[in-house]
Amino acid sequence: MGRQQARRHWRKIWIGSAGNMVEWFDWFVYASFAPYFASAFFPKGDATAQLMNTAGIFAVGFFMRPVGGWLLGRVGDRRGRKAALTLTVSLMSASAVLIAVAPTYGVAGYGGAAVLLVARLLQGLSVGGEYAASATYLTEAAEPRRRGFASSFQYVSMTLGQILGLALLLLLQHTLRDAALHAWGWRVPFAVGALGAGVVFWLRRSMLETDVYEAEADPGDRGTVRALLRHKREAVLVVALTMGGTVAYYTYTTYLTKYLSHTAGLPQRTATLVSLVALLVFAALQPLAGALSDRVGRRPLLIAFAVGSTFLTVPILTLLARVRSFWPALGLSLLALVVVTGYTSINACVKAELFPTGIRALGVALPYALANAAFGGTAEYVALWFKDAGVESGFAWYVAGCAAVSLVVYATMRETRDLDLTRVGPTPAPLQETAPTPRTEPA
């Protein structure tokens, strides 16, 4: 790869994933800052009940993701990947502003919770389309033999968004008194997220469409449910692929800080620092695992994740509940995230590789969003439900069971590494080496 071509390649990765980082910064700071604003929107009472209320609204956001997957997936297939990516970041910016200015229970009663709910619905709509749009863009924009590596940056950007959120939380914890964080400090990250979205909107206005999308000659019924129904097997496969991975991912990222704080009893700052360091390592692992999949295939990594998650989840969560200091908590968290990397590093390209160009964005978006609504968005709520019922260990078995279901799918699916994206269909064509078409990048 020449220097100019390499610059174009990295520019596409950067622009395609930068918005994803802001989207997931806003998405995850809701969960990270929930212990500070839960009491602001609901009546005083049991802390676990307040967290369950905010977790319930967090889960509601996931149920808008299928709507966002359908709407923005259709935009991505009919109007282009650029149009969908620009729209998603605009919606996320609006939702962040709403949360930043939402009135508290003391000012507006449940009106503040209603504003919070509307903001989460907008976030769900946005993220429902962002995942598929960025997954499709990064996969199509990559060199054919480096799709795993390029698409792995989707979870790099997602994780960096959470890292930035956790870093901001640590900064505010060290610079503000606890009372100030509960009173107004929790609004800061949402204001930061809104500003970041504006920057990414400007960046995405200059991005180029992918060659694969522009080479699609027949518009036909692009991005329609009718077209998707011709690929029912692939759609069901995306749901099954996602089930175990999304539950494990949200368990060890979104829910981990709360688990270490409320179950293991670690100080809030220690729990936050554990999550931050673990996620830094996790982000660095994604390109390495993505590049490995370009050499050995996607299935070996997926199977390794599912086996590890099925048999190690219960021991890891059991031991995490008993940790009393930073280093044991970090070691167990890293072990869990190394296992999860087998899924996160390549799931975007695997799903994109299943569908033809005219239905690729919707084909990834809608079934993935449905799976996340059913399993990812409810993971934290299910965990808190088990805790509230006095059988918290049941959640670990639930996570392991979801991974076991996905293991069956991974073991029986076809390998997708060598498929030609321009010829994916009922009988997928193997990858053929072709010279890249030079394109002019905007300055």
Structural features, described:
The protein has 443 residues and is mainly alpha-helical. It has one domain: MFS general substrate transporter like domains (Growth Hormone, Chain: A, Up-down Bundle). The chain contains 21 helices and no strands. Helix 1 runs parallel beside helix 4.
Key features?
mainly alpha, globular, Growth Hormone, Chain: A, single chain
Count of helical regions = 21
- The termini sit apart by 20 Å
The gyration radius over C-alpha positions equals 21 Å
Look at the helices and sheets and give the structural class.
mainly alpha
Q: Give the ordered list of helices and strands.
A: HHHHHHHHHHHHHHHHHHHHH
| CATH homologous superfamily identity | MFS general substrate transporter like domains
Region (Disordered): 422-443
Family: Belongs to the major facilitator superfamily. Metabolite:H+ Symporter (MHS) family (TC 2.A.1.6) family.
Membrane topology: Multi-pass membrane protein
Keywords: Cell membrane, Membrane, Symport, Transmembrane, Transmembrane helix, Transport
Topology of helices and strands:
Layout: H1 3-41, H2 47-63, H3 65-78, H4 81-101, H5 105-108, H6 111-141, H7 147-151, H8 153-175, H9 178-183, H10 188-204, H11 211-214, H12 225-229, H13 232-252, H14 256-263, H15 268-296, H16 298-320, H17 326-344, H18 347-352, H19 360-376, H20 379-388, H21 393-412
Helix pairs in contact: 1-2, 1-4, 1-6, 1-8, 1-10, 2-6, 2-19, 2-20, 3-4, 3-6, 3-19, 4-6, 4-10, 6-19, 8-15, 13-17, 13-19, 13-21, 14-15, 15-16, 15-17, 16-17, 16-21
Transmembrane segments: 21-42, 54-72, 84-102, 108-132, 153-172, 184-203, 235-252, 272-289, 301-320, 326-346, 358-375, 395-413
Pfam families: MFS_1 (PF07690)
Region (Disordered): 422-443
